[in-house]
Amino acid sequence: MSIAAADPEEGGDPPNEVTADVSVMATNFQLPFPCGQAWTGNSSASSAHQSWEIDFNRGSTADADLGDPVVAAASGTVVISAHQGSANGYGNLVKIDHGGGWSTYYAHLNVRSVSAGQAVSQGQRIGTVGNTSKPGNYISPHLHYEVRLGTSYPSNIQKAVFNGTTFGYPIQTLTSRNCASTTNPYTPQEVCGSGYSVIDSAALGTSGTVYLLYNSGNGYNCVTTIKKTSLGSATATAAYLEVQGSSRITDSGNFSYYAGPVRASAAGKCVKWGGKAGSYVYDSPFEHCG
């Protein structure tokens, strides 16, 4: 397993826990291995680990994983692809920036298949499992994986989330759902939550659809924009809801699968709603009164 590594990044503020939870779910990180493979992650086998870092292995012998493919947990831009030399224990390291302050680290790689500045898609091969480290640090092959939010090390290390579920620390075996897909895995009802039903929608060209939902149990409306293209890539997406007589509520940013949910109490009132995906925008009039 890996030896403690000095981190090259310093500064920044600790992440907001609520923002972190919402963002990591929207980013939809997947296991960093090809679809269908089962891997065991362990965050407790080395006393050198910071909280939430994971070492991944499979196979019954020490070298069983050597050379196995490693893929991007989510789409983004490669910001580091280099051997860290004597700087730390990472050896061959790939770091991917996913936008919104999120990044993933893939350490000890035997081979790096991507270059700094390169855009990568979710599931794209970025290297192979290895045992590279700093001189004199001998380790067995494994993938050292980290998720970070912000730059204040080590408080920026976050719990890993795969396919919408937090990793079962300290040890769990998972099957990869990092599978190529042209269909958005999220529905408006999933985004808005239990009790909401779609009452209206508007196409945003071929880039997505914005949905208006209503919950008859509590009198709340909800709006979400579900992307149809650039799935897994953080692109400009927005959703808003304005109850007549109240301020507009907007969720806007670079998102991988959807914007929202934005919710507001609207029983007996008219609402204006809309959203954006790609270059397409929809704005409704005040409607759905009552």
Compact summary:
The protein is mainly beta. It is built from two helices and 22 strands.
Would you write up a description of this structure?
This protein is mainly β. It folds into two domains: 17-175, Glucose Permease (Domain IIA), CATH 2.70.70.10; 188-283, Sandwich (Immunoglobulin-like), CATH 2.60.40. The protein contains two helices and 22 strands. It has helices spanning 17-27, 188-192; strands at 38-42, 54-57, 69-71, 76-83, 92-99, 102-109, 111-112, 119-120, 125-128, 143-149, 157-158, 161-162, 165-166, 171-175, 197-204, 208-215, 220-227, 235-243, 249-255, 258-265, 271-277, 280-283. The strands form five sheets. Strands 1, 2, 4, 5, 6, 8, 10, 11 and 14 form a nine-stranded antiparallel beta sheet that branches. A four-stranded antiparallel beta sheet has the order 15-16-17-20. The protein has a four-stranded antiparallel beta sheet with strand order 19-18-21-22, with no helix packed on it. The radius of gyration is 21 Å and the shape is elongated.
Keywords:
Glucose Permease (Domain IIA); 4-stranded antiparallel β-sheet; 290 residues; 2 domains; mainly beta; 9-stranded antiparallel β-sheet; 42% strand; Immunoglobulin-like
CATH topology of the largest domain: Glucose Permease (Domain IIA)
Shape: elongated
**Percent range for β-strand residues:** 35-45%
At CATH level 2, the architecture of the largest domain is Distorted Sandwich
The CATH C-level name of the largest domain is Mainly Beta
